[in-house]
Amino acid sequence: MAYNEETQKAVRRVWDEFKSETGTSQAKAAKALGINQSALSQYLRGEIPLNTDFLAKFAKLTKSDLDSLGITPATVGAMPLELRYTLSGRRLRDTSALVPSPTSFEGCFGIVVDYDDFALPRDSIMIVDETTTIKEYDSVILVSRDDRMINGTIRYTPDGWEVLEPHARGARRFVVRGDDTIYRLGGAFLPERHGRTFEQKPARG
What we know:
Layout: H1 5-22, H2 26-33, H3 37-45, H4 52-61, H5 73-76, E1 79-86, E2 96-99, E3 108-112, E4 125-129, E5 139-143, E6 149-157, E7 160-165, E8 172-175, E9 181-189
Parallel strand pairs: 1-3
Antiparallel strand pairs: 1-2, 3-4, 4-9, 5-6, 5-9, 6-7, 7-8
Helix pairs in contact: 2-3
């Protein structure tokens, strides 16, 4: 998404106030944002276009909300969501995204679908709620200690808890171990796509 000049001015104003109040240098702020000082300087001058990932990190660093940067649900129709994992376990490209929602994603994070061989399209975001109680037969994400993601249904057996991952030849079972983490899947955001139109061929007589 492209951000306008008013957002750029708001970022500069918030930075000036934050620097004045805390004495934080550009170098220290850049390190906290995960970028180099040159890049931060260019963001502040408008030489690098603002993006959602930068704005979300900047708002967190300066302890300001997105409203103070001129970004509201009314203007963007979306709320910021922290991205924590990819479904494959590979490294994330971005750590946040704006996702259409009438409410905030407090207590939630996203998992990016980064490959094609999955029920959801590539670049979809699976939304995980950390605050809700997990019950048997809920749709969950199992995160193993090596950050492997298993999406399935949790159930209890005489041998303990397990997650059933859907598979073309029957569900695969994954026993929940002590060092695994289970999250309840709250929903998903699917990217807008424009593909070809399917036309049903007439049945042969």
